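Researcher: Please generate the 3D structure of the following complex. Treat every line as part of one assembly.
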Amino acid sequence: MIPRISGNKLLNSISWLNHPYEFLDRALEQYGLTFTLNMPTLGNALVTGDPAYISEIIKNKHLIGGRGTRVLRPLLGDDSLIILEGHTHFSRRQILTPFFKTSYIRQFDSLTFTATLDAIEKLDKNACFSVFHTVRQITLKTIIRLIFGTMAQEKEKTLTQLVDAYCASFQNPLFLFLKILHFNLGKFSPWGRLQQNKKALYKFIMDEIEQRNAVPDLKPSNLLNELIFAAHQQKANLDNDSIFNEVLSLLLFGHDTNAVTMSWLFYHVYQNSDIHTKLKANTGNPQQVAEDLGPDNRNFLKACILESMRLCPVVVHLTRVAEQDTLLLERTVKSGDKILPCTYLAHHNPDIFNTPYAYKPQRFMSDKEYYHSFFPFGFGARKCIGEQLALRQMQIILSTFIRETHLELDANFKCNPERQLLLIGPTHGTMMRVV
Ligand code: HEM
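Model: Done. Output below.
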């Protein structure tokens, strides 16, 4: 019998939304790796970090992804890859995948490197800075270049400002979940400001699509051009509005997730002086590290990144919805119920990860594979399309910081997990200073 989380549904919901790590720590201790719950924001859900369940979930064709991210529709529209299902999801993914392969993304290594050097140069000695805010400027630059190709400097600057303004308009994590806040009183209400900022981005991207549409021999040399080509050929349900939604979603996911992940990474590395010293002694040329650490290679820098993602996964759980009554390890999940494969629970399973709350990069130095127990980028047909890009950027950015500057955590910084919409990051994105 699978245990069911008891207690007041509303209080559980608030705790789940505001303090998911704490909520899951308590649940793990009390109920183990698998339990059910019912909350107003979720409905009925089976939550699991048990590798046996995860293995079944990956294989099961009746558990549908995409619906769990519906809460993002007001931000991203309803037809970007992360939200699509079935054949449209498959064909959209086929169009996008080549732009995230190692052979394509390695051309952005030097941009990430120089953007990191620029960011370091701008840091005031002894002044406090947020890792999240510093890193997101670097990752945003790269994803803009990947999507749009090289644009005039002024245009790139305008687009950066528009994305910054849009991201700033949904900082409060409860904003999306509470529909009661979705009223538009123009610039006087948060929802109104969000709509205005989205409109400005829409105009920029639509102008860009129209200008490119007018080019007679447009080359599919960047992701936006490829989407425009695909729309001409009536592939993957694409029209100008869905191109806008796709571009918007890639712009947001393509920079924010790795910036939040890096806030945890800097916290873990700089909190452990032995680890930091070892990294400093071992870090080679930052532009070369991503090449040395190809997808299958193991070394200490990559191990530090993976261990940080294990300990503090920014995506706490994935969401699948049963499209019909479905048998899962002798338990029937009812049609419409949710299954949450839970990264946080799986990553803290004491049977797999000895002393699960300790930061020990050595775990990822051996050949051991953590099948079904470690999935910070998700799994199966919906696995993160940006995994290799994110890993390359993290390696380059961290090794550049380590080689080029001397940092320490700000003495007043108290690290607590905080929700940033769907992601969980450290307070203020980890506050540090150059010494
Ligand atoms: C460290 C950084 C990142 C983390 C931890 C992360 C995590 C994830 C996870 C867990 C999923 C699976 C969601 C699910 O199964 O429902 C996902 C999907 C996705 N990610 Fe990432 N991601 C990161 C970086 C990126 C980057 C750089 C991009 C680039 C554009 C990106 C784009 C996407 C997209 C488009 C999907 C949807 C894939 C699909 O449904 O087919 N992510 N990501």
